[in-house]
């Protein structure tokens, strides 16, 4: 799997999957779909989210006063950064399912920091550098539930920052036509098990990996794709709030 280029969000070389995605829903729509409380009042729909951007995630965590676990929609930086990791030159935004339960960078968060990253769809690219063709991949509905991991660290100013990474797997069907990896998507009616905040031991983590593979096998065939305007290639030169970014490219263009 190729590495990320120097500037996150600008596609002028082969990029890691998944390197850009869409969340077109407003806060109320997301909280309704995931039956979650809102901790992200500032969220605005985006048709181009890139690594290091702040994205919405869904996770369950204990209420400080009652100790009861509550499902919440909250902000997270799409650049996984646990407290023990030094600053990295490249953002850590994808996690391979093959190593999520064993690699020291990821396994602690997989054991106890599992989350859902909502998205409407994501982008992939084909072709040679300078002539990249952009593809938009999406499901049958307006919301896909990508399995992710999350962590928190205390910043120098004393504030806590939550960060996240999206788990990826070998691609299937339409996803495999444009890239060899795809996000691990769960059926919306099966996210309960993944979001269970109970800490997993080694056996529990392997069982969760098996569950993710089986569940995402059922979502993968529903993913379809079409080509979009290559202006999406340059994240810094577009308006992320522009819904036409996911319009199909006219035939023959």
Quick recap of the structure?
This protein is of the alpha+beta class. Helices cover 17% and strands 32% of the residues. It starts with 20 loop residues before the first strand and ends in a 25-residue tail after the last strand.
Give a written overview of the molecule.
This protein has about 250 residues and is an alpha+beta fold. The chain has 5 helices and 14 strands. The longest helix has 18 residues. The N terminus is likely disordered.
Question: What are the key terms here?
Answer:
253 residues; alpha+beta; 6-stranded mixed β-sheet; 5-stranded antiparallel β-sheet; 5 helices; disordered N terminus
H/E topology pattern: EHEEEEEHEEEEEHEEHHE
Please state the average pLDDT score.
89
Strand content bin: 25-35%
How does the overall form come out from the CA principal axes?
A: globular
- What helical percentage do the residues reach? 10-25%
- The gyration radius over C-alpha positions equals 17 Å
How far apart, in Å, are the first and last alpha carbons? 30 Å
Overall strand count: 14
Structural class: alpha+beta
Low-confidence stretches: 1-15
* Major sheet description: 6 strands, mixed
- By DSSP (H or I, 4+ residues per run), the number of helices equals 5
